[in-house]
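::Encoded backbone::
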Amino acid sequence: MQKIVKLCKLWGVFLPSLIFIFLSGRWLGFAVGAMNPVAAAQFYQSTALQGEKLVSAANPFEDFVFENKNTQSVQAPAERYNPAYNVVEEFMQSTVSDIVIKKDACYVKNMTHHTTDWLQQRMLAEMPFKVEKNSSQPQILIYHTHATEGYMPTADMAYDAAYSWRTTDTSNNMVAVGKVMADTLNSLGYNTIQDTTLHDYPSYNGSYDLSRQTVSAYLKKYPSIKIVLDVHRDAIERNGTIINPVTTINGKKCAQVMIISGCDSGYMNMPHYPENLKFATNLQNRLAKSAPGLMRPILFDYRHYNQDLSTGSLLIEVGGHGSTIQQAKNSAVIFATTLADMLNKQK
């Protein structure tokens, strides 16, 4: 009798896994399905979306927007606990070290196997694209893989145990920061599209798969796009204290900004990653000179972030979860203005 009970339990665990494997047709199903049938089912649901036909519209994933527009907090795996708002403002100084390399005013934190010489040869090299000013066709795409990443509404916000720093309120998440960037670039003559899809809502998992589909659809519809910016914010904590990376420029507090440029480990299918690095270092250098203190070192690491889709793809971290939304917006104006200035000076 005990053997029969055990067999029934085993069958109850592995039957959903076998169904998942059969339906998805993916080898990953063997690993995920065997360990967690529930996760397997969720994974199949997300992968099934990838096969859907994209429509030619300003937002090719508008069908994924839920009808319920009520704003909600969204928890990511790394931000499930809520310290009592012990936020400390800190200016993050860029300094040369064993892993931080400098050329002119540009700093790169090298977390890869590449040597200093290899990096120095590519830092500030000519960018692989030319951006057309006053074009009728889009030149720049801004989107948000983790759109629900939010900020402190004010620096003196009262403690709220329910606050999670993630929200669908687009006035206090990455969509608001991206809008400032897009509006600034458009006002300066660079045709810019902002996609406002909440790729990480309702599920944080699979957000990069969904944003990849979004970016691919835009690039197919508008091959004129040269620059693709995935705008996020960081989350910095030290011993339970939230760190707000901040500087003051022209009398205004601004959230410090970090560019992430991915490197191919040899198995990530990113053959053009050095081109993205050239773009990153030129932009970083210009920002470091025009707005001293705004930039943290570029993170050059084995990160994919869909940066294989173009030679102008970067991930931009504007402040952290301890920053205020106004500090992030202040930085967004400077960032976009400086990007436009750099593009103006392209030869």
Remarks:
- Residues 2-50 form one domain.
- DSSP finds eight helices and twelve strands in the chain.
- The first strand starts at residue 87 and ends at 90.
